[in-house]
Design a protein that fits this description.
The structure is a homodimer.
Chain A: E1 2-6, H1 10-19, E2 27-32, H2 35-48, E3 57-61, H3 67-76, E4 81-84, H4 91-100, E5 104-107, H5 130-133, H6 136-141, E6 145-147, H7 156-167, E7 169-181, E8 184-186, E9 192-193, H8 200-208, E10 212-215, E11 219-222, E12 230-234, E13 239-245, H9 249-257, E14 262-267, H10 270-283, E15 291-294, E16 303-306, H11 308-315, E17 326-327, E18 329-340, E19 345-355, H12 356-363, H13 367-384, E20 392-394, H14 401-409, E21 420-425
Helix pairs in contact in A: 1-2, 1-13, 3-4, 7-14, 13-14
InterPro entries (chains A, B): NAD(P)-bd_dom_sf, Sacchrp_dh-like_C, Sacchrp_dh_NADP-bd
Keywords (chains A, B): ATP-binding, Nucleotide-binding
GO molecular function, one term (chains A, B): ATP binding
């Protein structure tokens, strides 16, 4: 297997660092628009490479917005697989470039949505991944696989959902992805500062787009941003965090492959972060269209054009560089409700927690990007071994969850040494009956 | 009198529209970096000119950051007075340019402050106006006048303070400027939208700098932004608004010329606006230093440098253009506490209210910029008539308040037809004794 990773930001860098401990592939080309960044990733990965078969990691420059450039680079290196690790705005160009190169394709975020022109907070317009699923038959006919949404969320969350449907439930009411953390970033004075732990561009995109929900008897529909806040009690010492509906790939993927009455995604943004996102939106600083602004470069006066959202990203610290100053844990998981194999009401929270201190010590990668990056590497390993195989545009839940979850938990060098947990919770009364607050049981 | 107005933004434009109804000057040159903007102001003013002595208003282009350009333009037109109506970051270049041209000078905001390097929220560093007052003897020796802070706040507020000291009080505890409004801006759908009614650049500057307070036995000192929130009940139907300490020129001006135990400025920002400003500061979007950002201009790709605060200003609507969509009133005033001429405790709120509907109908100017602009025009008229005169760097409270307040209230064509109000309030107990909430009396 020869892998082309497009993008060496936080996640691409962690992909290389994780892959350096695995022997299932011959070569990994790490390409970025900023080749110096790719060089740094490749140097770190080669220095940590356990395969000891010569330098397996190679840096390259590529413009992710140019499908022909992706194709040319993939062909040059004989890439069998292209792993897309850039901002979701470049999904379609990398997806197309991989297809034209005859390579299989993986990503961690799907093609972008466009709100319904008249009723954005009631009906879906163009949905996440629609552009990719439209190409499904082309990929299938060519016998090539596009494994989409194969990060942690979407990705591991979809694997959890598949596992629950196959092995834990006879009937599923809701597949509810719930993501939360207790991360803080410390400033120079040791006091917490505001610093998002993941790409602010992507976070704004997913949080301010109309959140999508799926129900079996209604199909996909949307609600206003930050709808239905609920306090979810996260395990592992993280504790209660306010979660709200967010547009996310799981809601588009799971119903295509799994049976459930309802599919939701709620993100534990916390009150402070929700307030920040609301303000950015109120001011129009979330906008991506170019705005004319006075140049602040004395050597090049006049007017320049910038995207306000790019400016927001530029003033915030690079999330991938925050690892040393970050404290806490991040938790990704799926709350599954319904009836167990015995027909009794059941509620489980399948989840995976990464402690930043651990991922920094082991990989030099902060926990949020590490937790995202480990899943596509693991999926590539299952594909390399032939444990997973398929053709067409498929989500993670199209594959058997057991070998994935086993490999994730198994200690190194067999597995990735990062256990997941099944937590039984006290089932809530079914919808339509009187409700009382749920009391989470311990894991 | 020949006046050079530097800047034809909201306030400069309103200055010309107000001046068009007065006959005390021969010529007004309106200069802007964007000459098209100056042209629009001049066209509107000439069309409304009541003097009918030929076109009194002339447009010009000028770079306000270049003192030599200010001097050259002032000389070219034989300007006797330069009125500075640009962002406060250009105060020193316009101030210097006017001096070198041998012209008198007026502004509505003073030279910028710099926080104390170690204890920014306890001690003052470089204070507002320090750079200007340092030149006082030079202006005095030259027999030239620099009338600084001659807008509404500072400006009319300082005139109110002088009036209270001269005519209403025997002993002043506090001169407390209090500014509030009930303005809303309606969007295309008729619903209120977020749109600041004054330059966001200036608002960020004054609200995020350490607020300054003066006490007779302590001198000037600073506190953290948004300190000591209090709900102030504004008259004229505006009602209660949350006010917080803000860095403002009155606190630097009044103690230089008037006797009081304490001088404060509190701005009725309201909770929503305070939250927005806090968020901008948390994210670093209030910063003025250049930040490198990807160009969003396909014709000029690469990296450009912009000031984040300029980007915030660029995404928000131009406050001067909001008049048609604005509803409500703005109130500027000074709460004076102490002992009246009879020795009894007294509390008065001297204030001036402008209804946006009135200023739009009369002048085509929104109320906040109109209320700012009327005061320097009126001061220029008093200087032209010789009612006010002086040399050196002086604040509005260095001059007799009575002719100013009389001219403001008197109906046109004698006065400006915009009455002010003296509202008696129930005196609060003196500091150090038990306090009960004050109950405002009606005006």
């Amino acid at each position: 297997m020869r892998i082309l990773v497009v993008g060496s930001g936080g996640v691409g860098d962690a992909v290389a660092r994780i892959a350096a401990r695995r022997v299932f592939f011959e070569r990994m080309v790490v390409a970025d628009f900023d080749v110096a960044r790719a060089d740094r990733t490749v140097a770190a990965a080669n220095a940590r490479d356990l395969a000891r078969v010569g330098p397996r990691f190679v840096a390259a420059r590529v413009d992710a917005s140019d499908p022909a450039a992706i194709t040319a680079l993939a062909r040059e290196h004989g890439a069998t697989h292209v792993l897309n690790a850039v901002d979701p705005r470049f999904v379609m160009s990398v997806f197309q470039g991989a297809f034209d190169a005859g390579a299989d394709y993986l990503d961690m975020a799907m093609s972008l949505s466009r709100p319904h022109p008249e009723r954005p907070y009631e009906e879906t317009g163009v949905k996440l991944g629609d552009a990719q699923f439209a190409a499904d038959s082309r990929w299938r006919d060519a016998g090539r696989l596009a494994l989409v949404g194969m990060g942690v969320e979407p990705g591991l969350s979809d694997v959890f959902a598949r596992y629950a449907v196959d092995h834990l439930f006879s009937e599923v009411d809701e597949l509810g992805t719930r993501d939360g953390a207790d991360l803080v970033v410390l400033g120079d004075d040791g006091e917490p500062v505001f610093a998002p732990s993941f790409s602010i561009w992507t976070t704004i995109e997913e949080c301010l787009n109309p959140p999508v929900i799926w129900e079996a008897d209604r199909g996909w529909y949307t609600v206003p941003p930050f709808s239905e806040p609920e306090v979810f009690d996260f395990p592992g010492g993280i504790g209660p965090v306010e979660c709200v509906h967010v547009e996310h790939e799981e809601v588009l993927l799971m119903p295509r492959f799994l049976g459930a009455r309802k599919v939701t995604f709620k993100y534990g943004l916390g009150e402070e972060f929700i307030a920040v996102l609301r303000t950015l939106h109120t001011l129009g600083l979330d906008r991506t269209e170019a705005v004319p602004v006075r140049s602040a470069d004395p050597a090049a006066p006049g007017s320049v054009a910038v995207s306000p959202r790019d400016v927001v990203a530029a003033v915030l610290p690079d999330p991938a560089a925050l690892g040393e100053r970050m404290r806490g844990k991040t938790c990704a998981g799926v709350l599954v409700t319904g009836r167990g194999r015995d027909g009794e009401p059941r509620e489980v929270y399948l989840h995976h927690i990464v402690d930043n201190a651990w991922s920094m010590a082991e990989y030099g990668a902060q926990c949020v990007v590490w937790q995202t990056a480990v899943n596509p590497v693991l999926a590539l390993e299952l594909l390399a071994r032939g444990v997973w195989s398929g053709a067409g545009v498929l989500g993670p839940e199209a594959f058997d969850a057991v070998p994935f979850l086993d490999l994730l938990s198994a200690p190194e060098p067999v597995g990735y040494g990062s256990p997941w947990t099944l937590e039984e919770r006290t089932p809530r009364p079914a919808a339509g009956t009187a409700t009382t607050p749920s009391t989470p049981s311990s894991a």
